[in-house]
């Protein structure tokens, strides 16, 4: 956020307040499936864990990562920016 001068400190604080209001549920990724997603899509396993959870739970994926957004579309996962 700050590294690329996308937000001011005040904008980041407002965004974080909104983020804290989002209902979250901790779920475990299917590591075998995530590794397969990582291999197929050529993305880091770390990113594939989030994508796997979004696919299995039919949830949108919150990300600013452009490559992950493009990959999510291949798996019919909606993406959102915070």
Strand/helix succession = HHHEHE
Counted beta strands: 2
Number of helices: 4
First-residue to last-residue Cα separation: 11 Å
CATH class of the domain at 25-80: Alpha Beta
- CATH-derived architecture of the domain at 25-80: 3-Layer(aba) Sandwich
Structural class: mainly alpha
* Coarse morphology: globular
Strand count, sense and closure of the main sheet?
2 strands, parallel
Side by side, the strands of the main sheet go: 1-2
Rg, Å, rounded: 14 Å
Structure explained in plain terms:
GO terms for molecular function: endonuclease activity. This is tRNA(fMet)-specific endonuclease VapC. Pfam families: PIN (PF01850). This protein has helices spanning 9-20, 31-41, 45-56, 66-74, and strands at residues 61-62, 79-80. The chain has a two-stranded parallel sheet. It has a domain at 25-80: Rossmann fold (3-Layer(aba) Sandwich). It starts with 8 loop residues before the first helix and ends with a strand. By secondary structure, the protein is mainly alpha-helical. The chain is globular. The model has no long low-confidence stretch (mean pLDDT 91). Helix 4 (66-74) links the parallel strand 1 and strand 2 (79-80).
Task: Please outline what is shown here.
The chain has 82 residues and is mainly alpha-helical. The protein has helices at residues 9-20, 31-41, 45-56, 66-74; strands at 61-62, 79-80. A two-stranded parallel ribbon has the order 1-2.
